[in-house]
Amino acid sequence: MIRFRRRRARPAGPARVLLAHPSPDLYGSDRMLVESVRSLTEAGCVVTVALPVDGPLVPLLQQAGAGVVVVETLVLRKSLMSPRGLITLAVTGLRSLPRAIQITRVARPDVVYVNTVTIPGWILAARLAGAPVVCHVHEAEDSLPRPVALALHLPLLLARRILVNSKAAANGLTATLPRLADRIRLLYNGVAAPPQASQLQVQNGKVHLLLVGRLSPRKGTDVAIAALEGMVGRGLDASLALVGEVFPGYEWYERTLREQVSAAGLESRVIFAGFQDDVWPRFADADIVLVPSRVEPFGNVAVEAALARRPVIASAVQGLREIVVPGETGVLVAADDPDAIAEAVCAMAADWPAARDMAERAHEDALNRFGTKRYADDLMRLLVDAGVVPD
């Protein structure tokens, strides 16, 4: 039988938060981690972040006021879902758990804040060390086989509170484990605005399209390329910039994308820009932002497009349906439908003033619903309500 330590009496002083995260990169959930850290430190909390390896995220966390420790961590990845990968997961889990328990006991945090469901070992380690857990879920996996979904979500029963970044994420959890419903609280992402955002200019020449995100089947990069082919076939002079790179182990997908571009004769129209730390210049150069995701628990890029005053065309999936108001703040199309994207882009190109007006409405909406101040206030309120940090 697993025995959980009782929580010790809280010593006087500022609240202490141990925050566990699975990646040192600079994509959506990674940047949200920085916002969480900034919110906590500005509220007077002492924050330590545990990462599995060093990386470009570390200096941003330190600038936000956190201490950083590198700890071997079991991170669940689809690429490990194989007989050999399962052995790796088991070995890593057994090896990393004692260290996580030790760090938690030494830190004596008021709360262990586990950022995503892909590092369940930290939830167990926190409870074994006698610390309460808050898990911030950034995933909305609604197509997993039930046994896999159960295995992924069962550790959440050890969490005192579960924060989700969309109603879609909440629905995915409760569909698997209805018992989680009373622990779930909605916390939409808070996205920082660019230093300045120029208004979209009425266009007369080439249409510059932008897709920011991992090169991934989930992000629909191949759908965007197919849509570009359809636009060119309709006589529209358009180009597409792809800003992002693949996960290690998915290099095959980038090769497939490049073959797709070559087969369609789009080499002069598609730019593989790679990962870029500062994406705002790319938004400034774009006329329309595409978010053709097949799976999207929230959709930071759709918010970033709005903050940059650029019209967005997105898939009508999961969190994107909670961000984009069709016809008011953007255009939603069916997922995996390049023809629908091509038609939507051509319609915008035929009426740039209307596209600009829609982008301006989206800008105001994003500032109100997805701003960083709102996020910080809501995060602290939820942690106080959960009883894991003092008021």
Protein model, in words:
The chain is an alpha/beta fold and 391 residues long. The protein has helices at residues 28-42, 57-63, 83-107, 120-128, 146-153, 167-176, 221-233, 251-263, 280-285, 300-307, 320-323, 338-350, 352-369, 372-385, and strands at residues 16-20, 46-51, 67-70, 111-115, 133-137, 161-164, 184-186, 207-212, 238-243, 270-272, 288-291, 312-315, 331-333. The longest helix has 25 residues, at 83-107. The two termini are 35 Å apart. The mean pLDDT is 90.
What's the topology here?
Blueprint: E1 16-20, H1 28-42, E2 46-51, H2 57-63, E3 67-70, H3 83-107, E4 111-115, H4 120-128, E5 133-137, H5 146-153, E6 161-164, H6 167-176, E7 184-186, E8 207-212, H7 221-233, E9 238-243, H8 251-263, E10 270-272, H9 280-285, E11 288-291, H10 300-307, E12 312-315, H11 320-323, E13 331-333, H12 338-350, H13 352-369, H14 372-385
Parallel strand pairs: 1-2, 1-4, 2-3, 4-5, 5-6, 6-7, 8-9, 8-11, 9-10, 11-12, 12-13
Helix pairs in contact: 1-14, 3-4, 7-12, 10-13
Largest sheet: 7 strands, parallel
The averaged pLDDT comes out at 90
Radius of gyration: 22 Å
For the termini, the CA-CA separation is 35 Å
What is the chains' assembly state?
single chain
Relative helix content: 40-55%
CATH architecture of the largest domain: 3-Layer(aba) Sandwich
Number of strand elements: 13
